[in-house]
Structure formats: C-alpha cells, structure tokens
Amino acid sequence: MNKRTFLKNAASVFLAPLAGRLLAAPAAGKSRFLLVFLRGGYDAANVLIPVTNGFYDESRPNIALARESVLPLTSEWGLHPALGETVHRLYQNAQAAFIPFAGTEDLSRSHFETQDSIEIGQAAEGARNFQSGFLSRLVSVLGAGEAALRPRAMAFTDQLPLALRGEAQVANMGLKFVGKPAVDARQSELVAAMYRGTALAAQVNEGFAMRDDLMRDMMAEMEGAGRNAVSARGFELEARRMAKLMKEQFNVGFVDVGGWDTHVGEGGAVGFLATRLEELGRGLAAFADEQGSAWQDTVVVVISEFGRTFRENGNRGTDHGHGTVFWVLGGGIRGGRIAGDQVPVRQETLFQNRDYAVLNEYRGVLGGIFARMYGLEEAQLERVFPGAKPRDFALV
Amino acid sequence: MEVGTAKESHPVRAVNRACGPFFLLLVASCAGGPGDAPSSRGEDLLLLNRVTWGANPSSARDLARTGPARYLEAQLQPAQEAALPPEAQAQVDAMTITQRPVDELAKELESRRKGVELLRNDDEKKAAQQAYQQELTRLGREAAARTLIRALYSPWQLREQMTWFWMNHFNVFQYKANLRVLVADYEERAIRPHALGRFRDLLGATARHPAMLIYLDNAQNAANRINENYARELMELHTLGVDGGYTQRDVQELARILTGFSVNIDRETPNIRPAMRSQYLREGLFEFVPGRHDYGDKLLLGRTIRGRGAAEVDEALDLLARHPSTARFICRKLALFLVSDDPSEALVEQLAASFRSNDGDIAAVLRELFASPEFRASLGTKFKDPVHYVVSAVRLAYDDKAILNAGPMINWLGRMGEPLYARPTPDGFALTRTEWASAGQMATRFEIARTLGYGAAGLFRAEGPQPAERPAFPQLANALYYESMHKTLAEPTRQTLDKATSPQEWNMLLLASPEFMYR
C-alpha cells in the first residue's frame, strides 16, 4: 500500500460515499503527458525564427528580431532570446524539439472555433461531438483495461476544458489560488449526501477528493517549506504546483496560458511577446525541475490554435494566421532538433500569401506521439483521433 | 461524466410538472389581458429564479401583488431609473463614476499616465505608476460594485440580468490599456439603456464606444494599416456567428469599412483638408478621422458599400443586424441564457422570426420566449453560472437590506472564474452547465457557501478611512423559505438540513444544496 492508498483509506472514515474512485497507476508504465495550450494564437514566426533569408526581415520591418539576438538552433532556425535560460537550455540537452508548419485544417481563423476543433480532435468534416475531447478519449483508451490501472487526468484550470470533457471523469482545479478549505470533512459528507443520485454527484465527490489530494501536496508549500515557493510567481508558481501533482498523482494533465493575441505592438527581442515568452519558458523549466526524476518519463507538448500572419500588420503586431509551431519537451525525448515536414520560408510557400502552411496536422502529430508513448495500436489511436493518420517523428 | 441531464433528476421539476397546466394559464394571459390568475407560491419561486437574479422575500411580494403576467410585462418595460433602496442608492451616488463624466476622468488619467513617463527618478516613477494603476483599478471596482448593487436591489431585475448578458455578449477586458476607466460608461451608456431595446442600437452604441474600439484594436485600424480584429469579432461573435456565412474576404472588407473609427482622449483635433472637414466626427471620446479612412468601395456579404466615410459603418451594421444569421445567432444565445442549455431549433426559429419581424426588438423576443411552453417547462433546470450563484445567494440571505461592500462578491466571482469585465477573450463567458459544474467549480462553490452562510463575510464592512462594520447575519430561513422554497427541496436535502448543528451550518447547507444550484 503506498501513501496515496493509505490516505484514501484513512479518509474514507469521513468520505465513505466518495470512495467510488480507485487508486490509479499509469496504464502505460510511468509515462506522463502534459498539454500546454497557448490560447490566442502565439506569433510562432517570432519564436522559432527562420534565419536563412531576408524575407523574414522584409516582412517584419518593425518587429523582426536582429540576427545577433537570435539563439542558434539549426542552420535554418533560431530561437527567441527570451527563452535563453529555459527552453533553449532544454533544447541543447536534447530535451526540447520544435515542429514548425503544424496546425489544423480549420480555416476560420477564429480563436474559438479553432481552439474548439483542436480540443475535440475530430475530423473536420462530418458530425462532430462537442462533448468529447481528445484527451478524454485518450484517458478512456488507456483506462480500458483494469480499473486499478486507469490513468488519472487533471485539468489545472478553473473550468474543465473541452479537451478533457467526455466519458472519462476528469477533475479540474485552477492552481493560481490555493487556500486551506473551510468546509470540514463532516460537512463535506453532508453536502455529498444531498447530491447522491443527482446529475452532479460525480463532480461533487471528485471535487472533494481533489481538494483533499491537492491539500496534501500543497501543504509543504503553504507552510513555506517548499523549494522556490516564495520566489515563484505567475505561471512558474502554477507550473511548480502542476509538477508536484503530476509527479505524485496524475499522469495526464492540461493547462492553458492566455495572452498571445498580439494584434498591436508585440515587440521584438524585448516587449510584450518577449515578456510572455519569458514567463512561459520559466514555467516550463520550473516544471521540468520540480518533476525531478519523473521528468525522464514526461512529455510536454505546447500548442496554440494557429500561427499569425507572416507579415506584420499596420500596428507593429500580427493578425490571425494559419500554421504554427508546436513544442515538444521532456527529459527522455529525442530532442535538440526541428521535426516534421518543412518548406523553405519564402513568399511562394506562404499559405494564401499570408501565413505559414500546415504540413503537420495536429491530430497526426499528437497521435504519433501517443502511439510511441503508450504503444497504442491502430484501433486505439482511431478512437483518440478518428480518421487521422499518425505521423511518426521519432521524438519519443 | 455527464450523468444524464438535470431534467431527469431534479426535484424542482417535480413541482413544476405538478402545477404545469395551471401555470400555462398564467402565462397565457401574459400578452396583457386583465385577468391575472392567482398563482401558487412554488410557481412564483421558479419564475422569479429565472427572471430575476434570484428569488428573495421582497421580489416574491412584488410578484404576489401583481401576479406573474403583469410582473413579467412590467419587467419587459422597466422605468428609466431604478429606484434602489436609499442606502444602496447612496452608495452608487457617491461613486466617482457617477459624479464625474467619463471623458473628463479618462483625460485626467491619461495626463497622469503621461506624467508618470516623464519622471526621471526611478522610485518616484514606480510609486506614481502604482498610484495610477490603483486608481484605474478602483474605478473598475466601482463599476463592478454598481452592477452588483443593481443586481441585488433593482426592482427591474430583468433589465439588470440582460445588462450582464449583453456586457458578456459584447465583452471587453478591463485590464487592457486604460479600459478600467471606461467600463462603467460602456455599461451605463452603450449597453444598459438598450438591454431590452433594439439590437441594432446595442450594435451601434458598442461600435462607437471607446471601450470596444480600444479592446478590439479598431482605434488603430487605418487605411493601408489594416487591423482585422474588431471586424472579425463583429461578425463572428456579435452578429452572424462563426457559421453565419461570411468569408475571410468579408472580414477584410469590413475592416476597411471600419477604418478611421477611433478614440481621442486628449489629442487636439487633427488637421483635416478643408474638403474633408465635414466628414470629421467627434462625440465624447469617439472620433472618426477621415484621413485614416479607406474611401474605396467595399463588397460586404455580396453588397457593394460605396466608400463615403462613417456612414459606411452604419450601412454595414444595418446589414449585419438584419441578417437572418444574426437573428438566429442572437436568439439562440438568448434561449441559452433564459431557457436551457439545449434550446430546440423550433424555439430558436420562432424567436428569430420575431426578432426579424420586430426589427430586433429584444423585449418583443423575450415576450415570445416567456410565453413559450419550452420556457415554462425549463423553469428550475438551468444551472447557475457563478454570477447567478453569488448574486442569488446574497439576495436570499439579506433580501433588501443593502450591503455596504461588494468587495467580497467581486472576489468570489474571481475565485470562481467569472469576474466582471475580466474575461480576457471577446467571446464572453459560456452560458451552459458543462462550463460551470466541473469538480473544481463545485468544490469552490461549497467554500463560498460556507463563507456566506457563517456570517456577514465582509459584506457589511464599509470601506473608507474608518471602516465600520454593521452587525449582520444571513437570514436564509426566511419567509420565502417557509412559504415556498422548502416545498421544492428533495428528501435528501431536507434530511441533511435537519442534521445541521447550528444556524450557520444550516445556511451553508442550503446554499450548497443541489436545488440552489439551479434557476
């Protein structure tokens, strides 16, 4: 019996009716997966920078990064300097890779439409079910076997994202504000009793259980004993909390980070986008750090709904575009490279003479990663991403 | 796991079904017939919970006095100014946003901002910067407090609900630039006067309000320096809906039409060629700058819009407001807010037809909605989003006794993820249960139920130099509870309430009960 089982049993004195939930061990060994969704469509072309020709500079007279500030990756690509201490370091240790020309077939250029279509992960044509997200289906597939081996998923968000909605019961809890609960065990039991047999029973029970789990892991931090707990702020603080929870309890996670819709004054080596990137990078590096040895078995994929126009707009910003760049991070990945299909960045290769093309469709990319991580078979992948063909970039 | 729908298992429904035919009769007289049938208290409660921000003893008295049909009709035609309880009104009257015009406030803050940038001493600059930000935040919180006070005490509850609905529909994010100084005016002048009026007026007022023009970057949209942001959301989120039949080309054309629609807080009137001077517009902080406008012809949704200045925007908004996609999109959203998470296509079509034949008259659409069997059948089954949850709890707990501090409510809304004026993205908050009934949401909601149930929770501690706290205790076991609410509770809830070991715990359990989660 490990610590978690023990605590569950101890807690069951009060939480007997909540005991429907079983202890989970990862279905596919120790693998952990975190999806980081950059909402708003981050300007990928100013993060993974095409350094080979002048077209980039011509297209972005005010916001192009000077060559000397760009961190070298390959002969064709460089990285935004705000990621120097964090993601660039991971890249140098082969723990980070980038997949340019990634994205969806959705051409609406709408944030909301495209985010939703990514999160449900279903084929663009035909009837779509907006109550079934692809991460939820992944959890179902991984948990199809023994109940005790079911993976545990959690959204580190105030609201349950579409990606994790569906038949698998998934909890959510935003980690920005974590405080000591005032509803005690007896009261929790009384509340749960009112919900027994109602449509909300599962959520209510899961909510109390989640709160208790969270408290256990957060106690150290709240008592001020946690490493880096005082200095960490913003996304870094959230990321450290996520890492603790994923190290101990969860093997599929989701978080979103907003603020990437840079229509106006996005800046270059410094400025608005640089500040956002710096915070994101610090959070991701902190996540890796806090996971300790578990980082070796963890894969983090950073995505966004679309890229932005390759040319800057009239306001030193960029408008909604198409292809973007996905990031793949993890202690055990085969990183340190730019993966997937690529074309030279020139005016002729732009999609609709405006955006990066999509050569690496997100369902194929993620399907390929899941196939390798969990050894999924074709039929299982078909359930996660119906009709998609997995792409194998041998990253995992 | 979505275990069935609320309809299948919700106890409130049982009451409604039992009284169904009776209630039908009541609403049938809605169209203005003099014969208001008497109503049952259980029905009143359900109706109040949907039409108001939450039933409380005083609204139940109002409804009992006039009967539901007259009550609804009056709600659809509110008096211009809400008569708030004197203590509540006094708080609104004392606010800076009430006492000073927005253009003056915005100008003053803009000059402070520029003053900060001129400072050379780093410490002074930091302090001045902080003071500037604090003042912006204070003004934003005043606006939020005003909204909450009106939601709690205004007799015109439907208007206050619809004000929130349209603020959410035409969402702006107050933490962008200086929007915290503008949101109060945006709500007061662009949204609230039209909340039950014509959709076209809402559209026109938002399109000329600096809050919207800054939020969606149209203030920067100029000929040859196009910014598509507002144009896209105007069609996708404000009018047609994403499947409403427009293309990327339409977005670009509408962006051209919108060029020159801008904001002028403290700049001099720009130099304009004499021939163009008559084109220049300045109304409050709104400015149309001919020199930034693209005067070419445009093709929007198949119609040629002749390039001629600001009038192009009016023509485009007319086109969008009267488009059949808009009628469907808006009416579906109204039904989502006031009927159910999954309104029938028939209802949406019926409302859309009314929307079209009444030229987007919102009250007319709502009158039709209230009279529909689907509305009646849905009462008591709509899951409360956090704003409904918090406001209905405080209304029930304190009735018309005016709170002295909305701060705790503002904080609870933040914790639950539905703060006022602070949805960063232009889509606004979702209106369905799946968004708000997740495990984490429920756990947080119970914490708030506990805070509210156990005492005044800071709601009666006035802010200011000498914060005075007035004694107050939530009165949830009130007349409304004994007259009607207890009848709507399912057996497990009653049994649980009986196990409470203190009035505080009883309050908490009532606010945490499944019945209180629905409206």
- Strand content of chain B is under 5%
Alpha-carbon distance between the two ends of chain A: 31 Å
Please report the distance between the alpha carbons of the first and last residues of chain B. Answer: 22 Å
Characterize the largest beta sheet of chain A: strand count, sense, and whether it forms a barrel.
9 strands, mixed
CATH class of the domain at 31-148 and 155-175 and 251-283 and 293-384 in chain A: Alpha Beta
Q: What is the number of E strands of chain A? A: 12
Q: Indicate the overall shape of chain A.
A: globular
Low-confidence stretches of chain B: 1-38
Number of strand segments of chain B: 5
Strand pairing plus helix content of chain A: what structural class?
Answer: alpha/beta
What global shape of chain B is seen?
A: globular
Q: What is the CA-atom radius of gyration of chain B, in angstroms? A: 24 Å
Report the uncertain regions of chain A. 1-28, 225-230
**Average of the residue pLDDT scores of chain B:** 91
Structural class of chain B: mainly alpha
Strand order of the largest sheet of chain B: 1-3-2
- Determine the number of helices of chain B (DSSP H or I, runs of at least 4 residues): 27
Largest interface: A-B, 59 and 60 residues
- As for the number of domains of chain B, it is 4
Query: Multimeric state of these chains?
Result: heterodimer
Approximately what portion of the residues of chain A adopt beta-strand conformation?
A: 5-15%
Write structural notes for this entry.
The complex is a heterodimer of chains A (396) and B (519). With 396 residues, chain A is α/β, with parallel strands linked by helices. Chain A has a domain at 31-148 and 155-175 and 251-283 and 293-384: Alkaline Phosphatase, subunit A (3-Layer(aba) Sandwich), CATH 3.40.720. Helices cover 33% and strands 13% of the residues of chain A. Chain A has 11 helices and 12 strands. Chain A has helices spanning 3-15, 55-59, 87-92, 111-120, 134-142, 185-195, 201-222, 234-248, 272-291, 362-374, 378-384, and strands spanning 32-38, 48-50, 71-72, 77-79, 96-103, 153-155, 171-172, 252-257, 298-304, 324-329, 337-338, 360-361. In chain A, strands 1, 5, 6, 7, 8, 9, 10, 11 and 12 form a 9-stranded mixed beta sheet that branches. In chain A, strand 3 and strand 4 (77-79) form a beta hairpin. The longest helix of chain A is centred in the middle third of the chain and has 22 residues, at 201-222. Chain A is globular, with a radius of gyration of 21 Å. The model of chain A is unreliable at 1-28 and 225-230 (pLDDT under 50). By secondary structure, chain B is mainly alpha-helical. Chain B has 4 domains: 6-76 and 383-517, no CATH class; 86-197; 215-238 and 245-321, no CATH class; 324-378. Helices cover 57% and strands 3% of the residues of chain B. In chain B, the strands form 2 sheets. Chain B has a 3-stranded antiparallel beta sheet. Chain B has a two-stranded antiparallel sheet with strand order 4-5. In chain B, a hairpin with a 2-residue loop joins strand 2 (281-283) and strand 3. In chain B, helix 9 (122-153) crosses helix 21 (386-398). Chain B is globular, with a radius of gyration of 24 Å. Mean pLDDT of chain B is 91; it is low at 1-38. At the A-B interface, helix 4, strand 7, helix 6 and helix 7 of A face helix 1, helix 14, helix 23, helix 24 and helix 26 of B.
